[in-house]
Specification:
3-stranded antiparallel β-sheet; 2 helices; 5 strands; two-stranded antiparallel sheet; alpha+beta
Length: about 110
């Protein structure tokens, strides 16, 4: 889940977990990965609960910037593939879930 508004990047794991509860209305201890952006588009932080503690991951791109959704109040859900693309600095909007197909019928 991506917070679409930039946050104060001085916040640590506990501060970001509190934002998950306060601004997203979500449970920071659910195991969901929450993504936060800084005012500068080359920085991202991820916070999640791994069952033993709150994990904080921070990344700054050396070249380029992360592709962010339009800045609005609220949050945006991403698929695992979209999150991976965003974290790699790619345009996550171009990643789509494959369409499900019916199970093939065995040939007789």
């Amino acid at each position: 889940m991506v917070a679409t508004k930039p946050v104060d990047f001085r916040k640590g794991a506990e501060g970001l977990a509190a934002l998950v509860r306060e601004t997203m209305g979500a449970d920071p201890f659910s195991g969901t990965i929450y993504v936060f952006r800084a005012k500068r588009p080359d920085r991202v932080k991820l916070v999640f609960w791994d069952g033993t503690g709150v994990v904080l991951v921070s990344k700054r791109l050396e070249d380029g910037e992360f592709r962010w959704p339009k800045i609005e109040d609220g949050a945006l859900r991403l698929t695992a593939a979209q999150l991976q693309a965003l974290f790699e600095g790619l345009d996550w909007r171009r990643v789509h879930e494959p369409q499900r197909t019916a199970t093939p019928v065995a040939a007789s």
